[in-house]
Amino acid sequence: MTRATEYLKKVKEIAVEAGNKIMNVYEYTDFAAITEFKSDDSPLTLADKAAHQVIASSLEKLYPSIPVLSEEGKHTDYQSRKSWQTFWLVDPLDGTKEFIKRNGEFTVNIALIENNKTVLGVIYAPVTQVLYYGTVESGAFRQLYGQQAEAIRVNHKKQQLVAVGSRSHADPAEADVLSKFTIENSVSIGSSLKFCLIAEGKADIYYRHGPTMEWDTAAGQAIVEAAGGRVLDRSGIIFTYNKPSLVNTSFLCQGF
To answer: In this structure, are residues 163 and 197 in contact, taking their beta carbons and an 8 Å threshold?
Structure first.
């Protein structure tokens, strides 16, 4: 059993605990007083901060030798982190815009990176209480919290595909790329749930044009790969992590 597989149980518990903190804030009647904006105009809520605190403190306590790189934490410069062989890559609340819209399509994302590759991914959707998780060794799973987990796999089909796209970040370039494939239907959903739909075979292809951050994709990529799919950069190369810039290029996620 690899180290990544050994960590799964604890990481799932941490993700659920962070999700509970998020739901405490989700019950507020007015988000205006608990929302601020970062330098790039993206929203930051009390829920983002609370989830970050739970995840970072828990991981640091359990695994003190493994650094934590979180969207809401200190962004370690490349000169300091380039020697990291293993680290946690975290988005405490992925889909803050969906959180503010109260549509339920937001997640907690925790990934383990080893030698620039994502080897463990846990995604928790607090509203539905559904966990998605996986490693290449153990496979990928979907679990309603507290119930039996079920193994999930990508569809491995190349015709009559279902494309999944972003709820809040649609781009005209996506249609151009997807026109090269036989798309039968398309759906939209927020946050890293797009990766989850591909991993469980409810969608087959997801193209994202334009920037995302490494913490946006790492957990989802790990789960898709554990389910038999892949995530490629614009050169057709498997996505890697801990780059000098934490900004991702465009990517294509395939369930085949």
So the answer is: no
The correct answer on CATH 3.30.540.10 for the domain covering 3-152 is: yes
Distance from the first to the final alpha carbon of the chain: 27
CATH code of 161-254, in short, is 3.40.190.80
Q: Rounded CA gap, 196 and 49, in Å?
A: 24
Question: Going by C-beta distance under 8 Å and a sequence separation of 6 or more, which residues neighbour residue 109?
Answer: 90, 91, 92, 94, 121, 122, 123, 192, 215, 216, 218, 219, 220
Please enumerate in sequence order all residues whose Cβ is within 8 A of that of 75, keeping only pairs 6 or more positions apart, or say none.
Answer: 69, 246
Q: Which residues contact 239 (CB under 8 A, 6 or more apart)?
A: 118, 217, 221, 231, 232, 233, 248, 251
Q: Token pair for residue 180?
A: 């090269």
Largest Cα span, the chain: 48
pLDDT, tens digit (0-9, with 9 covering 90-100), for 180-221: 999 999 999 999 999 999 999 999 999 999 899 999 999 999
Domain ranges of the chain: 3-152, 161-254
- Nearest Cα neighbor of 230 from 249, 209, 208, 256 is 256
- DSSP, collapsed to helix, strand or coil, labels residue 136 as coil
- Closest Cα to residue 223, out of 249, 201, 241? 201
Asked whether the predicted pLDDT for residue 170 surpasses 70, the reply is no
